[in-house]
Design brief:
Chain lengths: 773, 157
C-alpha cells in the first residue's frame, strides 16, 4: 500500500493551526441575534408561571420563546438513527424542569449583555418538587420524574416511566445460578462509576440564518448533521427539504455532540424573527446542561474451577440516565455486549438491569459508551478472582479470553437496543497484545510491586478490552467521488470529522484505491445539501463503515475511468493498464494520462461528468482489541496515585494512518486516566452539580502525562477497508480496571468506586491497616 | 481620552475607548482575527492565548484596558516569523493537531516558552505550558512537538 497505512499529516492541520475561520463560532453571520437559555435553578419543579412582560419591553430583545411557541411533541435529543432506541421523553420546553440547568425558556437579543439582562428580567414561579437524587432509590420513588402522558418508546426497550425506569433488559445463556453454585471459586463484587464530563475544548455551538431561497441554513458543532436535520424537521414541523445542516470543523466531541443541544431553539429564533441567530454554550452550560457519561452500579459475580477456568459471569447493572433517557438502553447494553464476549468460554452468562431516571444532568453517548464501565467491573473482578485462585492474571487471561476464529453467543443475542449479529473473530490479536504488553511493561520483573520509598509503593496492573466497528445492519455510510478536469477528485462524504482525523483517513482510502496521491483527493464532509448521507461520528464507525463506502466508490470510479480510457484508446477494457498517472493500451502501447483523459471528457470527446456514489452498511462489527498495562506509584501518606507508564498494545486491523491512530489511542488513554483518577462529578444535596468549570473539574494537564508506549498489532481485517477496524473508542476502556489492579498490586487496596481520589485511596489504606491490626 | 492605543500584530491601532471589553471579543469581532478561540471564557483552558509584550495571556479574561500601549500578537501575527515555521513543522510532523481548537493557543504558548527557555527539558516543557488544555491528544504528541521545535537549529525565538 502506498497511501493507506502510511503516516500522513492531517489534511487540515495547517489551516487550523493558523487559526483560519473553520469552527461554528467563526462562521456565524454578522449581526446575529444572541440566543440565551433560562435554566432551572431547581433539580425538580413544576413551572407555575412565566412572566416575560418586563423582558419583552427591553430594548434589544427581539424574541422570547417559551413552551407556548412550540407544538407539544415528545422527541429524543439522542441523535441516533430512526426509530431511536431512546425514549421520546423530551419537549423543547416543558411545564416541568427536571435537573439544575434544564431549559425553561429562551431569549434572542441584539447583543449578549442585553440577553443576560433579559434573562434576569423574566420571572418564573416554580412549585419545587422532591427530587430523585439517589439513583439506587429511583425505582418506585414517590416522585415520578416523567408523569406526562405523551412520552413513549419507539419499540420495546423496557420503558416504564411510572416507575422511573427509562429502559431495562435481560438476557442469559445457560443457567448462571447453577454454574455459580457448582464453581470452586466465586467472586461477588459491586462497582460504581461516575458521570465523567466530555470536556471537549470547543463548547457546543450553533448558528442559523435564512438564505436567499428562504431555506434555513445551520452551522452546528455536531457529530450527527443528518440526524440533526431529521429531528429538527420533526420537532418544528418544518420541511426537511428546507433545512441545510453544515457541520464545519468541530473542536472535539467524544460523543458529547452526538445529541441535539442548541439547534432547535436557535432555529426557532431564526424562523420566527427571520434573522440570523447564534447560540453557544458557556462552559458552565457544557458541564451542567449538555450531558455526561452514565454513572452505573455494576454487580458482578464470577465462577471458576480451581484449575483457573472461568465458568460463569453474572452481571446486573443499574444505570443513571439522569433527567432524560438519551442513550439509556444502548449504553447500558454495550456495558455487556462489548465486554462479556472477552471471556467466551464460560458455560453460562447473564446480563440484566435497569436504566433509571433521576434529577441529575442527563447522561448520553461518551467514548467507550458503556464498555468502559463494564470493563472496569469485569477486569477488576477477574483480578480479584486471580488472587483467590493464586494465579498470575496474565496467565488466567491467556487461558480464558477470546481468540481468533472463535465467537461468543452474545454477539447474536445483544445488539444496540435490538438483537445482535452473529460473527466470528476473523481478526483477534489479543494473545499478541497481552504478550507484547507484558514485555514492554517488564511484567516478569515488576509484578506485582516494588517499594520506591517508605511511603511510595509501585505496582503494575493490566486489563484487556474490546469495542466494535459500527452498528451492523443499521448504520449506512455513503461516499461520492467526482472527477474534475485536470484529473483530480472531490471526495464528498457525510462522515463527520470532529478532530479524530476522518477527513484525512477517508482521503487516504480513496487515494489508495484510485492509485493517486493524497493531494489529488479534495475532501469535503458533512453538508446535508451537498454530501451523501452518513449517520455521523459515533459507534466507532467512520473508518470501517464510511471507509468501506469510500473504498467502494473509489473502486467504481477507477472502473469507470478504465471504461473511458478504453474508449479513448479504442480497445477492450481488459487491455487497459492503469498506473495511477495514466492508461496504456497494452496492445499498442498507446497512452493517455489521467489529466488528458479528464480534459477530454470535459471538453473534447465523449463529454460527461463522472461522479459516483456508493454506500455501505456493515454485516458485522469486528471488534478492535487491546491490552493496557500500567505502572502506578501510590503515595501511601497522601493517597495520591501517579501513573508512571502506560503501555497500549492495540489490534485495530490495519492502521490507515499510524500517526492518527496513535493519536486516537493516546488521547483516549489520557481521558481514561482522567476518569479514573481526577475527574470527579458530585452533586449538592439539592442536586446541583458541583463541578462546572475547569477549576473544579480537573481534566489531565501536561503535568499528569505519564510515559506512553503505543504499539499496534500486525492485523488485517478482511471486511474492512484495506484491513482496518475501528480505533476511536477502544483506547479509553482499560485505564479504570488496569489502574485499579495496579493500585491493588502496589499496596493491597481494592478500589471499586471511581474516581480514585487521594481521599478514597487514603481511606482504603487506613481501613486495610485497621484490618491487619 | 476616547480611544485605546496598542500595537496589534505589529501595526498601531486606535480602538474606541471600551476599557472593560474582553480582548478576545475585540480581536474576534472587531478585527476578524479568529485564531484566538473561546474554550471556557474563564482563563482556564488557554485556547484564546495571545502574547502581550511577549508574555502569554488568556484573551478571554483580559480587559482591553490592559493592552493600552502594549504589543499584542495573535497567531495571525506570528505566522510570518521564522520561529512559527519551525513550530508549525514540528506540530505537523508529530501529529500534535487533532481537533485543532486548542492549537493556535498551544503554538502561542510554545513560542512564549521557547522565547524564555530555548532548550527546555521535558519537565520544563510540561511545566512551562501547562496552562493550555487539550482533550484530544493526551499531550504526548504536543510535548514531542515542542521538544522537536526546540531542537531545531539555533534559537530564532
Amino acid at each position: 500500500m502506498k497511501v493507506a497505512s502510511v503516516k500522513h499529516s492531517s489534511v487540515d492541520g495547517l489551516g487550523l493551526m493558523l487559526g483560519r475561520p473553520a469552527y461554528t463560532a467563526d462562521l456565524m453571520a454578522k449581526n446575529s441575534l444572541i440566543v440565551k437559555v433560562l435554566r432551572s435553578p431547581h433539580a425538580f419543579a413544576k413551572i407555575v408561571s412565566i412572566d416575560t412582560s418586563n423582558a419583552q419591553q427591553m430594548t434589544g430583545v427581539e424574541c422570547i420563546l417559551t413552551a407556548k411557541d412550540f407544538k407539544r411533541f415528545a422527541y429524543t435529543r439522542a441523535g441516533q438513527g430512526y426509530p431511536e432506541p431512546s425514549p421520546h421523553d423530551k419537549f423543547v420546553f416543558d411545564e416541568y424542569v427536571r435537573y439544575v440547568g434544564d431549559e425553561v425558556c429562551a431569549v434572542a437579543c441584539v447583543d449578549e449583555a442585553t440577553a443576560l439582562e433579559a434573562l434576569k428580567a423574566i420571572k418564573v414561579e416554580y412549585q419545587v418538587l422532591e427530587p430523585v437524587l439517589d439513583f439506587e432509590a429511583a425505582i418506585n420513588h414517590s416522585s415520578i420524574i416523567h408523569p406526562e402522558p405523551e412520552i413513549h418508546e419507539m419499540f420495546p426497550i423496557g420503558f416504564e416511566p411510572k416507575k422511573n425506569i427509562a429502559a431495562s433488559y435481560q438476557m442469559h445463556v445457560g443457567d448462571v445460578e447453577k454454574t455459580l453454585t457448582s464453581s470452586d471459586v466465586v467472586v461477588d463484587e459491586v462497582f460504581y462509576t461516575h458521570a465523567q464530563a466530555h470536556s471537549m475544548m470547543e463548547p457546543h455551538s450553533v448558528n442559523t440564518r435564512l438564505d436567499y431561497m428562504n431555506r434555513l441554513v445551520m452551522y452546528s458543532s455536531t457529530q450527527t448533521p443528518f440526524h440533526v436535520r431529521r429531528i429538527l424537521s420533526q420537532v418544528l414541523t418544518f420541511p426537511l427539504s428546507k433545512i441545510r445542516v453544515i457541520k464545519p470543523r468541530v473542536g472535539g466531541g467524544f460523543g458529547g455532540k452526538q445529541a441535539i443541544h442548541g439547534e432547535i431553539i436557535c432555529s426557532a429564533v431564526t424562523l420566527i424573527t427571520k434573522k440570523p441567530a447564534t447560540l453557544t454554550y458557556t462552559r458552565k452550560e457544557v458541564f451542567e446542561s449538555s450531558y455526561s457519561r452514565h454513572p452505573m452500579r455494576l454487580s458482578i459475580k464470577l465462577g471458576a474451577t480451581k484449575e483457573g477456568v472461568l465458568k460463569a459471569i453474572d452481571c446486573h447493572i443499574l444505570s443513571d440516565t439522569g433527567a432524560y433517557g438519551e442513550h439509556a438502553l444502548t449504553v447500558f447494553m454495550v456495558a455487556g455486549s462489548k465486554v462479556l464476549p472477552l471471556y467466551n468460554k464460560v458455560d453460562s452468562v447473564r446480563f440484566h438491569g435497569e436504566v433509571v431516571y433521576t434529577n441529575h444532568t442527563p447522561a448520553g453517548a461518551f467514548r467507550g459508551y458503556g464498555a468502559i464501565q463494564g470493563n472496569f467491573a469485569l477486569e477488576s473482578a477477574i483480578d480479584i478472582l486471580c488472587k483467590k485462585l493464586d494465579v498470575d492474571p496474565i496467565e488466567f487471561r491467556m487461558k480464558n479470553m477470546i481468540k481468533e476464529g472463535e465467537t461468543s453467543p452474545i454477539f447474536s443475542i445483544m445488539g444496540e437496543g435490538t438483537e445482535g449479529t452473529a460473527m466470528n473473530m476473523d481478526t483477534c490479536k489479543l494473545p499478541f497484545c497481552v504478550q507484547k504488553g507484558k514485555e514492554l511493561i517488564d511484567w516478569t520483573k515488576t509484578y506485582p510491586n516494588k517499594s520506591v520509598s517508605q511511603d511510595i509503593k509501585e505496582g503494575v496492573g493490566m486489563a484487556i478490552a474490546m469495542q466494535g466497528s459500527g452498528i451492523p445492519y443499521i448504520d449506512m455510510g455513503a461516499a461520492t467521488i467526482k472527477l474534475n478536469d485536470d484529473g483530480f477528485f472531490n471526495l464528498l462524504v457525510g462522515a463527520t470529522e470532529i478532530g479524530q482525523g476522518s477527513d484525512t483517513v477517508l482521503s487516504q482510502i480513496a487515494a489508495e484505491a484510485l492509485e493517486t496521491d493524497l493531494s489529488n483527493v479534495i475532501v469535503y464532509s458533512s453538508d446535508s445539501d451537498l454530501t451523501p448521507f452518513d449517520p455521523g461520528a459515533y459507534a466507532s464507525s467512520t473508518t470501517y463503515v464510511s471507509g468501506n463506502a469510500v473504498y467502494l466508490a473509489a473502486l467504481s470510479m477507477k472502473k469507470r475511468l478504465i471504461t473511458e480510457a478504453a474508449l479513448a484508446l479504442r480497445c477492450e477494457e481488459e487491455l487497459i493498464r492503469y498506473d495511477g498517472i495514466g492508461f496504456t493500451n497494452t496492445n499498442t502501447n498507446e497512452q493517455i494520462t489521467l489529466k488528458q483523459l479528464s480534459n477530454r471528457l470535459f471538453y473534447n470527446h465523449d463529454q460527461k461528468q463522472l461522479m459516483i456514489t456508493e454506500s455501505y452498511v456493515g454485516h458485522k462489527s469486528p471488534p478492535p482489541f487491546m491490552a493496557g498495562f500500567v505502572r502506578v506509584q501510590v503515595d501511601t501518606s497522601t493517597g495520591e496515585v501517579r501513573v508512571v507508564d502506560y503501555v497500549s498494545v492495540v489490534d485495530c486491523g490495519t492502521t490507515i494512518n499510524p500517526m492518527l491512530a496513535r493519536g486516537q489511542v493516546e488521547g483516549a488513554i489520557i481521558q481514561g486516566i482522567g476518569m479514573t483518577l481526577y475527574e470527579e462529578a458530585t452533586y449538592s444535596s439539592q442536586g446541583r452539580l458541583h463541578q462546572n468549570d475547569f477549576l473544579s473539574y480537573h481534566i489531565p494537564t501536561r503535568k499528569e502525562l505519564p510515559h506512553l508506549t503505543t504499539v499496534f498489532a500486525d492485523s488485517y481485517e478482511e471486511s474492512g477497508p484495506y484491513g482496518a477496524k475501528s480505533v476511536g473508542e477502544i483506547g479509553i476502556d482499560t485505564p479504570p480496571a488496569a489502574i485499579a489492579n495496579a493500585i491493588y498490586n502496589a499496596c493491597g487496596i481494592r478500589l471499586t468506586t471511581l474516581p480514585f481520589t487521594p481521599e478514597k485511596v487514603l481511606q482504603a489504606i487506613h481501613s486495610l491497616k485497621e484490618k491487619l491490626r | 481620552m476616547n480611544e485605546i492605543r496598542f500595537w496589534l500584530n505589529g501595526k498601531e491601532v486606535h480602538h474606541p475607548y471600551e476599557p472593560t471589553k474582553r480582548l478576545l471579543d475585540v480581536l474576534r469581532d472587531h478585527y476578524s482575527l479568529t485564531g484566538a478561540k473561546e474554550g471556557c471564557g474563564e482563563g482556564e483552558c488557554g485556547a484564546c492565548s495571545v502574547l502581550i509584550d511577549s508574555l502569554i495571556y488568556p484573551a478571554c479574561i483580559t480587559p482591553l484596558a490592559h493592552v493600552s500601549n502594549a504589543q499584542v500578537y495573535t497567531i495571525e501575527g506570528i505566522k510570518t516569523l521564522p520561529s512559527y515555521a519551525i513550530i508549525e513543522e514540528a506540530f505537523i510532523e508529530e501529529g500534535a493537531v487533532q481537533c485543532g481548537i486548542c492549537t493556535p493557543g498551544m503554538v502561542m504558548a510554545t513560542l512564549a516558552l521557547l522565547k524564555k527557555t530555548p532548550h527546555p527539558t521535558l519537565e520544563q516543557i510540561k511545566d512551562g505550558i501547562s496552562g493550555n488544555l487539550c482533550r484530544c491528544t493526551g499531550y504526548n504528541m504536543i510535548v514531542k512537538a515542542v521538544l522537536r521545535a526546540s531542537l531545531k537549529g539555533e534559537s530564532p525565538w
